Amino acid sequence: MEVLAYFPDYLSGLWITTTASLLSFAAALVLGVITAVFRRSGIWPLKVIGAVYVEVIRNTPSLVQIFLIFFGLPSIGIHLPAFEAGVIALAINGGAYLAEIIRAGLTKVPSGQFEAARTLGLGRTDTFFHVVFPQAARYVYPPVINEFIQIILATSLLSTVALNELTGTALVVNSLTFQTLVAFAVALVLYLILTNVVSFAAAWLGRRMFHPPLQLRQERQHGKTLLKRLTIMAGGR
Fold first, then answer.
1. How far is CA 201 from CA 18, 88, 91, 197, 229, in A?
2. pLDDT tens digit string along 59-89?
């Protein structure tokens, strides 16, 4: 079929999709953690900033956000290439959703853990990264991976700003061959392969992280037991 002659172009589009997804997700994860911390902060300006950001992004279309950055910013003198504009837009969008996922995970960590950490002499930063976040990670891992897959699928919107990612490539191939069914079927299969690879890799990594070998599980259990005792001691004071 004529469409298959453009398969190298599809692979190039797949590479752009993968790269944009990884960069967007990495930036979104950082933004999500910061926003979640803001929303749980006792400093009200930070809470307001976090809340406004989440509400604005979650209640407006992703496509409009992409257009705002790619077409809107040039009006104030900021010109971004399609790839950079797309990555920024997807990162900002994904960050709002990840913020709520991470915030929900943090609320599941018992408050006594904070008291136990203070008993051990840990500061706020050490408490967050060494006590709270590792426990919250178990709860947020599945929805975070789901959000990563949503970001992968959302890269298809970047075809609207003339980025030849996977969907953009399919549009070009369709315009050249007029074989619409095959042109988009190839893109669909490649999306399916990519998201399934991510799902299986994430499942494997999750088992390694949260269901470690017996010896490591015993060591972690010993640490949890010690922390629980300290929590009880802190609560009794």
1. 14, 25, 22, 6, 36
2. 999 999 999 999 999 999 999 999 999 999 9
Question: Quick check: is 75 in a domain?
Answer: yes
CATH number, domain containing residue 156: 1.10.3720.10
Q: Whole domain around residue 200: which residue ranges? A: 7-235
Q: How many CA atoms lie within 13 A of 18 on its CB side?
A: 15
Whether residue 91 lies inside any domain: the answer is yes
Tell me if 1 is assigned to some domain: no
Residue with tokens 């002659």: 5
- Cα–Cα distance, 105 to 23 (Å, whole number): 23
Count of C-beta atoms within a 10 Å radius of residue 86: 27
pLDDT in tens, 155-207: 999 999 999 999 999 999 999 999 999 999 999 999 999 999 999 999 999 88
